[in-house]
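Researcher: We're teaching a course module on how sequence relates to structure. For the next exercise, students receive a sequence and then see the predicted structure as tokens, so they can try to spot secondary structure elements on their own. Here is the exercise chain.
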Amino acid sequence: MARGLTRRWLIGACAVGAAATLVGCTSPTLPLPPPTAPTISAGTAPGTVTLASAGGVQPNALVIVLNQNPELARNERVSGTFADETGSWQLEVLARPGDVLDVFQEYESTRSPPVTVQVR
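Model: And here is the predicted structure for the students to work with:
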């Protein structure tokens, strides 16, 4: 009788452990926050600005900048770079005063909401 109870207890414990593992694997991950608003300074070429942020994104994240100015060619409206191990990054983009830029971060398969900044 004791052997039967022990066997049922082990089977029950294994079932609970398996269920806990499945629940842990299916739990949602936390959403990726928007990047910290970058500083904006003059770029090295006319019609460009340099965006920079110290620790403003997930370490090693992909940083994407979308210029909302429809007058730019589509391939000139999108720029990107990778952050370093501290989440810091710098990128020169085509933009002029008045342009509105959306800055996203992507890490693994998750994209953050944008932080929107305007070039002054």
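Model: If you want an answer key for the exercise: Residues 10 and 19 are 14 Å apart (CA to CA). The longest strand covers residues 100-107.
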